[in-house]
Amino acid sequence: MAETTTPHRGATEEEVGPHGRHETESERLDRNLLELLNELRVALPGVQVLFAFLLAVPFQQGWSDVTAFQRDVYFATLCCALIATALMIAPTAYHRLNFRARRKRELVMISNRLAIAGVAFLALALVGTMVLIADYLFGAVATAVFGGLALLLFVLLWFVLPKAKDLGSESDAE
Q1: DSSP code of 11?
Q2: Where is the secretion signal located (predicted)?
């Protein structure tokens, strides 16, 4: 069987991905890794700022006045921010420790899972921050309302929307 070429860079049909990209598997893995690392570069500063803010909270005046619930929410939120930071930095460590090991496919797959888990823990940390502040300022009813709304917002925007197939057109770039 003769090898067919496409007009783009002489790529064979086997090199055209499911979304019409003309790239080899190696090029696709490189692109996927670069996109993932760029996304993490956007998210990490926010996580780090939140974590730094949370580290300073117990040393502020008035901290001794918090309730047991607020203290527990604070610590759970701090833990979520710490876990989010670790998960989002983990792909870099994984890459460095496996440098030139020819495991790019594994790196991309594992890093993707780590990033998704990191985003989930970041959402929990942000919801926890909202719960803590709402409870401190307004009480239990506002805590439930604003905490629930914050959780709903993150679930919808960060997890449901990306999986909603009907919202984009078929010609959208992957």
Answers
A1: -
A2: none
DSSP string, 32-88: HHHHHHHHHHHHHHHHHHHHHHHHHGGGSTTGGG--HHHHHHHHHHHHHHHHHHHHH
Note if the pTM is more than 0.90: no
Q: How many CB atoms lie within 10 A of CB 24?
A: 14
Domain count across the chain:
1
Residue 93's CB is within 10 A of a number of other CB atoms, namely: 11
Q: Which of 45, 46, 73 is nearest to 58 (CA)?
A: 73
How many whole angstroms separate alpha carbon 25 and alpha carbon 17? 8
Range of the domain at 25: 21-57+65-163
Residue 98, pLDDT score: 85
